[in-house]
Design a protein that fits this description.
The protein is mainly α and 470 residues long. The radius of gyration is 21 Å and the shape is globular. The two termini are 17 Å apart. α6 crosses α18.
Length: 470
């Protein structure tokens, strides 16, 4: 099938978007290996230091839907510039922080910046390319995210060991400035799609409170106990707030944070549900594979980060290829194949035992990386293209919210299984088996509902095309 050629500005814009995503994705993982140095610098414990990561991730997950709606309402380039400025400025302040609480505050505010940047980047990327190249947009963004996630632990470990952990924050400034300059040069100035349409502030507050309560309950549940009054209270608050959000949205009309045309889109909903079911897998692998490498195989912190490269490198490379495959085969086949590989990869990794060597993990990690690369870029594209183009940023934000929510729920479930087991290896074995079953349900959702009906006409054209060449 012929694809439209890309103009020079579109190519430069894709590069700028990829660089911006690289910064955001790298920030999720780069500090994981720097936590011991941060503990030492501020004479604090790991319980406090881990909030350097948690504060950013939670605020990012809570604010991202609002960020997507703001980008669609007030202009994606405008919101991107605001988000990048917040992200870069508080990166620098965090790098100079002489108190752990100032550092944590900066990380939380950086989460706001990232939550404004991500959906704006998605909206601008899909807007830069013709609809026939939508797969390339998704593949580029998720591929850059994969590279960022993969190099994060390596870059963080290198900077921490050489010039100090503070430079993990400082390097964000020049990269962010470069991305802003290119965006200003090649992305057209955008006007709001609905200039006078107000935002549903009640719904925004309700969703934010609900998501924050849910994420805190899932994060604290293992330590405090799932029947602790505090955890039960947080779950109750989450249920009430999300119920209130649904109530507010039903009467908000065009002001709604998530408009009715998005809520009732069945293809979009299916993509979200599939993402929710699959996200436990990726997050669990990111957490427990390095723990196994460190505690059972004796790897160092940076060695454990490098140990993930078979998965993360395959993820990044496959994401770029997935864009072209999506354009050729359509969403149904690629999303379903990605989901199937995710499930298979988790079942392979679930065979872990105390005697398992690193070499025996590689095949499972590669299969998992193939699944992540095919699934996430393609399901994002399938979800966004199921909506009106003016909803692109919001659609991308909601898919990512499902990813964060699924990951948090999955981590809570995985952690509960692991800590109740007699050994780390046995706990990972049982948890990964459960993840594989969840993924199998995700495969069913993808096959039956994501991407609409199978495009048999396209497949026939491809078969005839290949026969002709033969």
């Amino acid at each position: 099938m012929a694809s439209e050629r890309l103009e020079k500005d579109a190519i430069l814009g894709l590069i700028a978007m990829g660089v911006a995503v690289l910064v955001i994705a790298n920030d999720f993982t780069a500090l994981s290996v720097a936590l011991p140095a941060i503990e030492k610098a501020f004479d604090t414990d790991v319980t406090t230091a881990q909030w350097v990561i948690n504060a950013y991730a939670m605020v990012f997950g809570v604010v991202i839907v609002t960020g997507g709606r703001l980008a669609d309402l007030f202009g994606r380039r405008r919101i991107f510039l605001v988000g990048t400025a917040i992200f870069a400025v508080f990166s620098v302040i965090g790098g100079f922080a002489d108190d752990v609480w100032l550092l944590l505050a900066c990380r939380a505010i950086m989460g706001i910046g990232g939550a404004l940047m991500w959906p704006s980047i998605l909206g601008m990327t899909y807007g830069l390319l013709p609809i026939s190249r939508a797969g390339l947009a998704g593949g580029t963004i998720l591929g850059a995210a994969g590279i960022g996630n993969a190099i994060g632990p390596l870059l963080g470990g290198f900077l921490t060991d050489s010039v100090g952990w503070r430079w993990i924050f400082f390097v964000n400034l020049p990269v962010a400035v470069m991305a802003v300059i290119v965006v200003l040069m090649v992305v057209p100035r955008d006007a709001p799609t609905k200039k006078h349409e107000p935002l549903d502030y009640r719904g925004t507050v309700a969703l934010s409170v609900g998501l924050l309560s849910l994420l805190l309950a899932l994060d604290w549940g293992v330590d405090l106990g799932w029947t602790s009054p505090k955890i039960i209270g947080l779950f109750a608050l989450a249920a009430a707030a999300i119920g209130g959000f649904t109530w507010f949205e039903s009467g908000a009309g065009e002001r709604a944070l998530v408009p009715e045309d998005v809520m009732k889109n069945k293809n979009f909903a299916a993509a979200g549900i599939a993402t929710l079911l699959m996200s436990a897998i990726f997050f669990a692998a990111l957490l427990y594979l390095p723990q196994f490498m460190s505690k059972e195989l004796g790897f160092s912190a940076i060695g454990s980060g490098a140990g993930l490269l078979p998965m993360m490198g395959t993820f990044a490379a496959t994401s770029f290829v997935a864009g072209r495959l999506y354009e050729i085969l359509g969403p149904k086949i690629i999303v379903s194949l990605g989901a199937l590989l995710l499930s298979l990869g988790m079942f392979l990794l679930s065979r872990v035992e105390a005697s398992t060597t690193y070499d025996q993990l590689i095949v499972g990690m590669v299969v998992l990386g193939l699944g992540v690369g095919l699934f996430y870029s393609s399901v994002t594209t399938a979800a966004i293209t199921a909506l009106d183009p003016e909803r692109a940023s919001l659609g991308g934000a909601i898919v990512y919210m499902f990813q964060i929510a699924g990951g948090s729920i999955g981590l809570g479930l995985n952690t509960a299984i692991v800590v109740s087991a007699s050994s780390l290896a046995e706990g990972i074995h049982k948890a990964f088996l459960v993840d594989g079953v969840l993924a199998a349900y995700g495969v069913v959702v993808a096959v039956m509902y994501v991407g609409g009906k199978l495009d048999t006409k396209r497949l026939r054209e491809m078969r005839h095309h290949h026969r002709g060449h033969a």
